[in-house]
Amino acid sequence: MFDGFTDERVDVGEAVLRVRHGGDGPPVVLLHGHPRTGATWHRVAPLLVAAGFTVVCPDLRGYGASTAPPPRPDHGQASKRAMAGDVARVMEHLGHDTYAVAGHDRGSYVALRLALDRPDRVRALAVLDSVPISEHLARADARFARAYWHWFFFAQPDRPERAILADPLAWYSGLDPARLGAENHAEVAAAVQRPSVVRAMLEDYRAGLEVDRADEEADRAAGRRVACPTLALWSVHDDLEELHGDIPAIWRPWTTVLEWGRIDSGHHMAEDAPEQLAARLEDSWRSR
């Protein structure tokens, strides 16, 4: 994976992040979701490098080989604001003043927070398989509870850790090496068997229902929008559109310039449809 990329550890203050980066051209940063690592982009990143971009793929704090501070009562150490600050410091460390950012799943909430908090840095945003956390929760009906039950289970104290760590590979039984690729699978499988990673991933969800939701609601109350162009993409074979209907209508109040589209894939589009995803990102970012 990531042939020709540099693989380094970057100290961002509260955490040390594993960061892969390579290429030469306009910088873009790709942020993974749960329970993945930066390796989820191993098929997309080389395509973007070939298209002329510099590509940065960190493991978010607490995920993969990145560290995280101990949990706090308010879960603020796992907030999307804290994670977005990490990404901004990584990009500063690498010498990138402005950049595009794409986030998938949990990484999309970090990407959104980065774009809202650092409009001077983010020149383009792509949010993949998501709507804002507060928008999900505002629409939480019985169908949503059945589909996203894990959000509410993961928010409980202690029980999720015990359930997952009893047999992590059974819990994450959907990790298929044929679909992920052997090296990506090995990296994720190793990560989810580490108690510190499991705890950090759960803290991500706990922060989502509390501090992250509050931060988003404060943004809406203040009338803040993403200042840069935003691309919203979602997977045809996932349930986002089935649950929430008109996805662009949800994103429009959050954005100033919005484009959108569907990817013919399951939820993990970077692994299922890398060529299609890379082409959509390249097309959107080429003029940014």
Automatic annotation (TrEMBL):
Keyword check for Hydrolase: yes
Domain AB hydrolase-1: 26-272
Entry keyword annotation includes Membrane: no
GO molecular function, one term: hydrolase activity
Record's signal peptide: none
Keywords in alphabetical order: Hydrolase
UniProt cross-references to PANTHER family, sorted A to Z: EPOXIDE HYDROLASE (PTHR43329)
Name of this chain's protein: Haloacetate dehalogenase
InterPro entries xref list: AB_hydrolase_1 (IPR000073), AB_hydrolase_fold (IPR029058), Epox_hydrolase-like (IPR000639)
